[in-house]
Amino acid sequence: MKKLRLILGDQLNTNHSWFKEKNEDTWYCMFETRDEAAYVTHHIQKLVGFFLSMRSFKEELEAKGHQVIYYQLDHPDNKHNFHDNIQQLIASLSVEKFEYQVPDEYRLDIELKQLCDQLSITSSICSTEHFYTNRNELSKFFKGKKQQTMELFYRYMRKKHQVLLVKDQPLGGKWNLDHMNRNKWNDKDPYPKQLQFQNEFEHVYASIQELKINYMGTISAPYFEYPINRSQSLELLQFFLEHQLKYFGTFQDAMHDNEPYLFHSKLSFSLNLKMISPKEVIDASVAYYFNHQEDIALSQIEGFVRQILGWREYMRGMYWSQMPKYKTMNHLKHHRKLPKFFWDGETKMNCLKKSLNQSLDLAYAHHIQRLMVIGNFSLLAELDPDQIDQWYLGVYIDAIEWVQLPNTRGMSQFADGGLIATKPYISSGNYIHKMSNYCSNCHYNQKERISDNACPMNSLYWNFLIKNESKFESNFRMKMMYRQLDKLHSEEKIALMNKAESLLSSIEDL
Fold first, then answer.
1. Per the domain annotation, does 259 fall within a domain?
2. What are the angstrom distances between the C-alpha of 5 and each of 31, 66, 135, 363, 378?
3. Residues 282 and 394 grouped into a single domain
4. What band does 148 get if pLDDT is binned at 50, 70 and 90?
5. Who's near 287: CB < 8 A, 6+ residues apart?
6. In a domain, 334, yes or no
7. pTM
């Protein structure tokens, strides 16, 4: 039977069972399309990274003897959408069966199902063989439970997969060591080494320019520095284990003007394109920890395991349990337009300026910059979650909707009303000062609340609490915040609200 198998740009798994055997009646197809490049405004490094990785994967399959039909952006037969390209190949190759791996984005899931309904040949779908969980495992786990927190799911995953356990109990006696992972980094601390690859990208970049695909951000380095294949991904993992893991937990929440990556692994791009699997990463990391316990504290490896085994799988489960309605949720009814500085980084707020420019320059920011700087400001400034989603999905090189949407709309913006986060993740300028050196180089004064040069985060923070008191005053995790609010005199509350409204009315000038 002549088969055509579709491989999406985030399905670059060379260990998939599809590739165990070669068959002269099986063709694999991969497409660089304008539709996928332009359904949201992507960062130029994201576009380059996906296309470079796809091309590398194609070459690897061909080297192993598989038949691959690959449409680059400038291919003369490229119709620039999956439907037309696949229909064209089915006809030209006399294909008898179409197969694909389950997509991880809802829109593609629907699109490919609709395509199969229109085909005159048989079709089938199979697993990507990548995640620890299937789409529905999280929903089944939480069925009948009063609490649906990531922490409960994380413990379940640790037990199920026997990670950092001693007789079904957590190694060290505690499941979560996050309280040990909140240190600020400064120049006196260990210096973070980085590994950068030298992948040429001129041809891909030229094709993007020729098709006039709109993008954001910059790509100025002579080489693309992220891994674009499995070999480079494994090299990056090994580098992380040898040079960064022993400091990862301690500084995982830290931010610094001159160190965008600190001790973060940068493996999320490789993971989300499936060039490397989460189980490989967990197994290698845990094994390395046990072989180097004299140098690596338990809190370092536990924090890393929690991000991948816990948070990553939890986000995916929440995405599939809530879509498609999740994408429209706006619990707090925020509708303010994104300020221009989200696109050019021109703001006097140094924390935002650094985080936004880093995102635009590198297509990268770690979780605290995304959550507690950019996300925190967006929530306090009442920005529209639809626009926030579009920006986050486009700007980050590792952003695919299944992981971006629940992190942004749920965890960051509380637009889901608390399905993911048990409270809004908000703070004044004090948290940012505690975790970074941003405030020391800022136009504004982190200690001031209502003066002309007061940190905008401060009045916006108190304004949010005051305006939403009826929604959150009974939230157990926000009791301390509201106790502090109760200590303010009514005149000060009014002054803070007036200050916040003044800032929001001239938000482009911040």
1. yes
2. 12, 11, 22, 31, 42
3. no
4. confident
5. none
6. no
7. 0.95
